[in-house]
Amino acid sequence: MIDIQVFPLLLGLSAAMFTIGSVGVLVRRNPLVVLMSIELMLNAVNLAFVDYGRFLNSEDGQVFALVVIVVAAAEAVVGLALVSQVYRAGRELDIDDLSEMRE
């Protein structure tokens, strides 16, 4: 069982990580930085899942975190493949310009 004093600290850390990630998604225009910010947000959610699961003496939080890790890995693979194809095509890597994917 997790100490009751550590539980809010870990949730606060998770909220801070999620906030930093969401600011990175909203402010930055580089697709790689946006992907890293999304990964940071997903890791914040994983921390919250594991924290709640440990607080409740359940392994469900770890199972959900594992599912999120698998989804994050698939998202990173697809996102990096799209970024590398756009870079190879010689187009500028800017989120605003890439909103419409056309040749």
What would a concise description of this structure say?
The protein is mostly helical and 103 residues long. It has helices spanning 6-27, 31-55, 60-88.
Please report the number of helical segments: 3
CATH architecture: Orthogonal Bundle
Order of helices and strands: HHH
Task: Tell me the number of strands.
Answer: 0
Sketch the major β-sheet.
none
CATH class: Mainly Alpha
What does this structure look like?
The chain is mostly helical. It has one domain: Helix Hairpins (Orthogonal Bundle), CATH 1.10.287.3510. Helices cover 74% and strands 0% of the residues. The chain contains three helices and no strands. The longest helix has 29 residues, at 60-88. The chain is elongated. The model has no long low-confidence stretch (mean pLDDT 88).
Secondary-structure map with pairings?
Layout (H helix, E strand, L loop, with lengths): L5 H22 L3 H25 L4 H29 L15
Helix pairs in contact: 1-2, 2-3
